[in-house]
Amino acid sequence: MPLQLLSVTSEVYPLIKTGGLADVAGALPAALARQDIAVTTLMPGYPAVMQAIGEGEPVRRYENLMGGPGTLRRGRAADLDLLVLDAPYLFARDGNPYLGPDGRDWPDNPLRFAALSRVAADIAEGALGSYAPDVVQAHDWQAGLTPAYLHYNRPARRPPVVTTIHNLAFQGVFPAYLLGTLGLPAEAFSLDGLEYFGAISFLKGGILFADHVTTVSPSYAREITTAEGGMGLEGLLGGRTRYLSGILNGIDTRIWDPAHDPLIPAPFSADDLAGRAGDKAALQREFGLAASPDAFLIASVGRLTEQKGLDLLLGALPALLAEGAQFAILGSGDRALEAAFTAAAASHPGQIGCRIGYDEGLAHLLQAGADALVVPSRFEPCGLTQLCALRYGAVPIVSHVGGLADTVIDASPVALRQRVATGFQFTPSSEPMLIDALRRAAALFREDRAAWKQLQQNGLATDVSWDSAAQEYAALFRKLLTPSA
Ligand SMILES: Nc1ncnc2c1ncn2[C@@H]1O[C@H](COP(=O)(O)OP(=O)(O)O[C@H]2O[C@H](CO)[C@@H](O)[C@H](O)[C@H]2O)[C@@H](O)[C@H]1O
Questions:
Q1: Cα 295–298–299 angle (5° rounding)?
Q2: Which ligand 1 atom sits closest to the C-alpha of 384?
Q3: ipTM confidence score
């Protein structure tokens, strides 16, 4: 009988995605299945999700869930076993799951995600009868109240809960007066409860009341216990290091497979990188760059935010152009950064190309056609784009933080000699050090193509699949079920 895991998440690829959380929640179930773990995913019934499961099978009805009715429906979509919280007054809104059309957080976000966590706790307690999980995995602040409800309710059945932090920058902090509305007792407003600088924090609840906390890389697990990386929660996290671990993310190697990728014009593999030339030409066409096979083409893909250090990249563009390099960027986010990269492309036609928006196909083309992928993050819990880059032969140029530090081997003279390097790292995350790394990369590309090809082949040979992460999660879940643990 497989171990039954309830995964609680606010987004799942390919049903709804704003960031890497969706990729992880979408890919882990298949990898865990190979470890004899059956995952059921609880998520909100956004319109796209309701459409994907149709009617589903109603398994529980709520007359009053945070102020309105809801139905929990069982269904299957995208190869996932789903429990969907169909509560139209909370979730029947198109577009971004967290933001209204004005780009601001929905004002009722605390109610929306408390409802998700409340239902998760009910399922954990055994409310469904037909299904009761052995272990619960609560992802990010949106599921953070799950172990808090279990703590304050003191149910007879209380399976272990693992809280997984994908990004400590988002904590779900809301006014304390909401406690009653969220169905939490007044005692929860305390230092050893949800209280956080005079407000309440959903993620604090997730950390405090979980049996174990994971984050998505070993380095980030360390960084979040420091004043610099802990975002105000370092004290709590530092006091719980016995229950805190970092498990490095993978990527879905079926979706990201350069030998069989319908989203790129020319397939390739580690043994035969020749196809990349066709992909590079297509990328140059698509981004309006000069059709030059020998130009050093650097790409960037992701959310345009300060976290990702894209303001540093903006400052480094003149140096990059001075190296004769080309630059292609795909992303969306901060309006000022969107405007700045759009303007940079307009003033450097043929050298800089920019696409604002979200586009899976272009993301694949960028990875397949670019010579290098730059990720200059200020902090990075894991990072998925550099993993895709490794698998696609786009040499990653990354800051030495979090999961970036854990997944890229810098092309130091020793690593080059030993033929183990996979990319370039720089530290600290500053403009001068980024420029230095870009210059190092440009020089190697120009002067030693054999060494460059070795970097690409080492990247392609790196295991970026979910297999070892799934083994680590499986070992953790099983340990939590062992009485002596
Ligand atoms: N405009 C666009 N068009 C197409 N595709 C786009 C895109 N913008 C982003 N993507 C894709 O979305 C994914 C984002 O992955 P990241 O690791 O950068 O996630 P993010 O920072 O959101 O997530 C957080 O959670 C993840 C998962 O744990 C951590 O890896 C990460 O460090 C943490 O910040 C990548 O697969 C990327 O290709």
A1: 140
A2: 17
A3: 0.98
